Amino acid sequence: MTDLSEKKNASSEPAWVAAPQDDPMAISLRLALGYVSGKKETHYAAELGVYRGRSLQVLMSEGMATGANFNWIGIDTFSGLPPLGEKDRELAPENSPYLLRPMYDDTTLREVEAFLEPMGMGDRLKLYEGLLADVLPSLPERMYTFVNISIKTYEAHLQALEYFYPRMREGGVIVLDDVYNRRFPMAEMAVNEFLADKPEQIFQLTGSDNVGLVKRGLLVKHGPDTIARIKR
Fold it and tell me: Most CB atoms closer than 10 Å: which of 41, 99, 205, 229?
């Protein structure tokens, strides 16, 4: 785990620019703040699948722009996709590149640290390097306002949802980055299996980011009152 407050050359002035209003990540973070109570308190948020840090940068920038107090964690192997499981190989489209060679391995923890350091987050950002199975049990116990899951594989989705779903605040938002991604159909299967006995539904969020038009899944955590109304 790396705490960016340990960096000695961090800028005293945060370097950030608010995301475009139609960026789906920015939209989802604003929705989370609208749904949960206590905007002025500390909000905990996470991104699983940091890669080079671009989407985490967008999310942290949007958090700053709202004026809310966010503490962030980012989790990644920083060495590519985790090992593929049986479901991944079974569901992967024929000739998918990740069946033949490593993917998303053109990044390192040090490079992401350097990329995010100018934002001046200090101890409000912690990066964890490793597989979810190893990292999640080591996290401090807390409730989350926002979680972005961008991890592609079947087993990793189940691990992420099993950990974070019960730790979401009422009104908290989970973004499912790959649930509509045809290159990784195992993500949709894992999400659907996990939510089969849950009251929440997935909403489609469409917007534009730096690669063009994108679709993401959005899950808003129900509280006891909401669940009671649904069951009536």
Answer: 205
